[in-house]
Amino acid sequence: xxxxxxxxxxxxxxxxxxxxxxxxxxQSSSASSSLAASQAGSIxxxxxxxxxxxxxxxxxxxxxxxxxxxxxxxxxxxxxVIGWAFEHYRMPEGTTSNDPKIAxxxxxxxxxxxxxxxxxxxxxxxxxxxxxxx
Amino acid sequence: xxxxxxxxxxxxxxxxxxEKIMVxxxxxxxxxxxxxxxxxxxxxxxxxxxxxLLKIATEGDIxxxxxxxxxxxxxxxxxxPKL
Lengths: 134, 83
Description:
The complex is a heterodimer.
Chain A: H1 37-47, H2 52-60, H3 66-81, E1 85-90, H4 100-106, E2 113-114, E3 118-120, E4 125-130
Chain B: H1 15-31, E1 34-39, H2 49-55, E2 62-63, E3 67-69, E4 74-79
């Protein structure tokens, strides 16, 4: 199962404000206590991200570099195995959020992984890990 | 950090366990922590808090910010960098 939904052809679509998530990377994904068998396949997909289709799809959901993609994947995988949820939040420019984790990421360097919080991959894209109690 | 690359070395069990070790190591890399492989004997006295927690964890469970118990005797412990 692909980590990022590959394009089936044609020109890449412009970035969407409502990104399409492949299975295994759902917004506010339900937590899993163990690695699903399907994720073994997604590791392979991520490793082959140099291929244009995967990379183009990744860019559509706010991942702006292969390095960022690796970080998003690492956080998502870690969240899965510890039973935490994982979400992508796109915050429109000029807006603010009361969410403390978003606030932490908002002042972080783009690409910096914050323990127990997540990573920011662009000015507006935040990947957040959530404890079950949150 | 070497352990994940040693798939097939005794007694690294299942693909799922291997993947968990990889996940733990990658996450540690990105947050700037170390992932320490520890082998203990059944009668060893444990005076390490994180290892103590893992000793009572279920095999295969990752304890957040603590580590992973692979088997009765093998553990991967997440270590914050010393300041």
